[in-house]
Design a protein that fits this description.
Length: 241
């Protein structure tokens, strides 16, 4: 997807530094596909041409949090679907902006999906925009600069979808209990509710049994439930099974 075509048409011959007085925007790329990160780097990472400086890369949630804390970028180009909890988990756990007022970190979701739960999820998580991986390099550079300036950036179709989703009675309802859970905790919750044993969950999610137990304990505590049977009833009532 691309953003406003009229704006981008004026920038085809010199996005980024060529159109913004030489200003540079520091960016971190977060995507679990190395080849994709390499492609994005090739498209936008020539700082002299684009004005974008890629200061770090990450392939999962924990790496992303480490790189963001170390490099303090102005914009994080964040894939929605990541190992370790997803892009929403990065948004929730990212360092607070107040830690460095001179360099506010602004997230922007970027993914193949335009499903309601993905788009609304990252917005509620704090992202300043959402585009899909079909965006052109020129449009992406423009979006990065706009997000750095504090704008919210969406393609026209997604912008309309977001407005309709929040205005419509069919919009995904806010579930405060569910919002307390991390993406990984939700995955464990669903598998527990489906009757999987801890060892089976550990194998499916590529984590240890001890980690599964920790996630289950956290879910029970956050939802104020006593055991996995209550957890199963809770999940079934919300049609999560």
């Amino acid at each position: 997807m691309s953003s406003d075509g009229a704006q981008h048409g004026a920038q085809q011959d010199g996005a980024g530094s060529g159109t913004d007085g030489g200003r540079t925007v520091r960016v971190v790329l977060v995507d679990d596909h190395r080849m994709f990160r390499t492609g994005v780097q090739a498209e936008i990472g020539e700082t002299g041409r684009t004005g974008v400086e890629v200061v770090g890369e990450a392939a999962d949630v924990d790496q992303a949090l480490t790189v963001i804390a170390a490099t303090r970028p102005e914009v994080v180009l964040l894939d929605v679907h990541l190992p370790g909890g997803g892009g929403v988990e990065v948004l929730r756990r990212r360092p607070p902006r107040e830690a460095d007022p001179a360099r506010p970190r602004r997230g922007r979701g970027r993914a193949v999906s335009d499903a309601a739960e993905d788009v609304i999820g990252v917005i509620r998580g704090g992202a300043r925009g959402y585009v899909t991986k079909t965006i052109t390099g020129t449009d992406l550079v423009d979006a990065i600069f706009r997000v750095s300036d504090g704008d919210a950036v969406f393609s026209p179709r997604l912008a309309g979808f977001v407005l309709d989703a929040f205005a419509s009675t069919d919009a995904p309802p806010v579930d405060e209990d569910m919002d307390r859970l991390t993406q990984r905790e939700r995955e464990v919750l669903r598998l527990i509710a489906r009757g999987y044993a801890y060892k089976e969950i550990a194998k499916q999610l590529f984590i240890s049994v001890k980690t599964v137990e920790s996630h289950v304990s956290a879910v029970l505590r956050k939802l104020q439930l006593s055991n996995r049977h209550e957890l199963t009833r809770w999940a079934t009532a919300r049609r999560l099974v």
